[in-house]
Amino acid sequence: MMRIGQAVDIHPLTDGRNLILGGVRIPHEKGCDGHSDADVLLHAVGESILGALALGDLGHHFPDTDPRYKGIDSQVLLRHIYELMHDKGYRIINLDATIMAERPKMAPYIETMRRNIAACLHCRIDQVSVKATRGEKLGFVGRQEGIQCLCVCLLGETE
Predict the structure, then answer these.
(1) Rounded to an integer, what distance in angstroms lies between the CA atom of residue 141 and that of residue 23?
(2) Cβ–Cβ under 8 Å, residues 105 and 134
(3) Backbone phi, then psi, for 66, in 5-degree steps?
(4) With b meaning 16 or more CB within 10 Å and e meaning fewer, what string describes 86-107?
(5) Where are the beta strands (DSSP E) in the chain?
(6) pTM (2 decimals)?
């Protein structure tokens, strides 16, 4: 049996925060605002897996009212989601994520993001796609007010 999940995550950009995407700290004058480290890419990846398993959303598992998750590395959250997936008898077949950000350029960091995601999910790097696109100066992404990520994942039963 296979399951598919999709997710969208959005975080506003703000001064005084590090920009962390896919577990990579990217030099930039602003970072994403949020309760955890606000890694919008890992949040979309994790939520797509939770969706595929019909296990709710990130807020259900890691509420922003819980001080344990204040500033937490989203890789820790993704590894926990991996354990939920594994316990349910599923594995990653593939996932495809898109980062939407006007700046900075993501190309230098994509391979490290893919490696980090593959490590958290115990899968091969060729099962993880991460792409980036700009907002072309349109909407909140184009105005550099926030970053949005989309992710689709396909899960298969473990053998």
Answers:
(1) 20
(2) no
(3) -95, 115
(4) eeeebbbeebbbbbbbbebebe
(5) 2-14, 19-21, 24-26, 31-32, 90-100, 128-133, 146-157
(6) 0.96
Please report, in range form, the residues annotated as the binding site for a divalent metal cation: 9, 11, 43
Taken in order of first residue, the domains within the chain and their CATH numbers are 2-157 (3.30.1330.50)
What's the one-letter identity of residue 57? D
Long-range CB contacts (< 8 A, 24+ apart) of 12-15?
12/145, 12/146, 13/144, 13/145, 13/146, 13/147
- The H helix count followed by the E strand count for the chain is 5, 7
| Binding site members | 9-11, 35-36, 43, 57-59, 62-66, 101-107, 140, 143
pLDDT of the chain, 159 residues: tens digit per residue: 999 999 999 999 999 999 999 999 999 999 999 999 999 999 999 999 999 999 999 999 998 899 999 999 999 999 999 999 999 999 999 999 999 999 999 999 999 999 999 999 999 999 999 999 999 999 999 999 999 999 999 999 997
